[in-house]
UniProtKB/TrEMBL annotation:
Belongs to the acyl-CoA dehydrogenase family. The keyword Zinc does not apply. This is Putative acyl-CoA dehydrogenase FadE. Keywords: FAD, Flavoprotein, Oxidoreductase. Residues 174-297 form the Acyl-CoA dehydrogenase/oxidase C-terminal domain. Signal peptide: none annotated.
Length: 313
């Protein structure tokens, strides 16, 4: 099976990179940790048309680029909610919000009970709970401050309207998009580690020429590519092999968590003492890695679901 990206996908990636480059998201993440107002690039997402993706693969490609720059766009929660709502567009509760979500005048988040540490909940207008309930009136108390580039909220509400959605499908979409964001961050951490290894010299040679450094970075690359392959297959399975989507999505999530964890650690290792300083970006990727592995059931739950899918045939 050929998963090589076509011209449309490559053009999307290029446009997302160009749009995100207009904001120094790394500096914004660091400044937010010092008390500045966290940045949010929702309007960039709206201008780019990223709020209405024609398929899960396109959302994955956008989230990879967002993760690479630790860009808070709100799309992890929004695209998960939209995917849950689309098959039920004729339901009155869905019809009342879906057009606004697609054109970006409304922003959504997706919550799964218990609704704590919900990605992108702060500032959202619509909440989709367990893939089958639309909530218009809710409170989202901002949670955590470890990684200001990924806004989280503890959510509460009194009433919502069910539309018969598929909780399992929504959960798998969320896992896939979270994996995409994690892979992007892993690639970002690897990129700055490689660049530093080319420039930093020891004993008259670039440290990247030493086998110990080469092996560290090559292992990160291997895990990144493994996660990428699983992500592309999960995107394919969502539309073409629904019976395999659960396995593919959770496998991609588990692999991406492995990739970002190792990438962040090796990035710190390659930079040595410099990587541990506040001014360097390495700790920002490390923060994202540690937070990601705890969200949406955590890495352990994803691994358990993979095992369950395998043993159930």
């Amino acid at each position: 099976m050929n998963f090589e990206l076509g011209p449309d996908e490559e053009l999307l990636i290029a446009s997302v990179r160009e749009a995100l480059s207009r904001t120094d998201t790394m500096a914004a993440a660091r400044n937010a940790l010092d008390g500045a107002q966290p940045a949010h690039l929702w309007q960039e997402a709206v201008r780019g048309g990223w709020t209405d993706m024609p398929g899960l693969l396109y959302g994955v490609l956008v989230l990879i680029e967002c993760g690479r720059r630790l860009a808070p766009t709100g799309l992890l929660g929004h695209l998960t909610a939209v995917a849950a709502l689309r098959p039920h567009a004729d339901h009155p509760a869905v019809a009342a919000v879906l057009p606004g979500l697609l054109d970006g005048t409304l922003r959504a988040a997706a919550a799964f009970t218990p609704a704590t540490a919900v990605p992108d909940a702060p500032g959202a207008d619509v909440l989709v709970v367990d893939g089958g309930v639309v909530v218009r009136e809710f409170t989202a108390q901002r949670a955590g401050g470890y990684d200001q580039s990924l806004p989280l909220g503890d959510v509460s509400w009194e009433r919502g309207e069910g539309f018969g959605g598929d909780a399992g499908f929504a959960w798998n979409v969320a896992q896939t998009l979270l994996a995409a964001q994690a892979l992007g961050a892993a690639e970002g951490a690897l990129a700055i580690a490689v660049e530093y290894a080319k420039q930093r010299k020891a004993f008259g040679r670039a440290i990247g020429s030493f086998q110990a450094i080469k092996h560290q970075l090559t292992e990160v690359l291997r895990l990144n590519e493994n996660a990428r392959s699983l992500l592309y297959y999960a995107s394919y399975a969502a539309e073409n092999e629904p019976s395999e989507f659960g396995l593919a999505a959770n496998a991609a999530r588990f692999a991406a968590d492995q990739a970002i964890d190792l990438a962040a650690r090796r990035c710190l290792s390659v930079h040595g003492g410099l990587g541990a300083t506040w001014e360097h970006d390495a700790h920002l990727y490390f923060r994202r890695a540690q937070l990601t592995r705890l969200l949406l059931g955590g890495q352990a739950a994803a691994g358990e679901k993979v095992v369950g899918h395998v043993f159930s045939g």
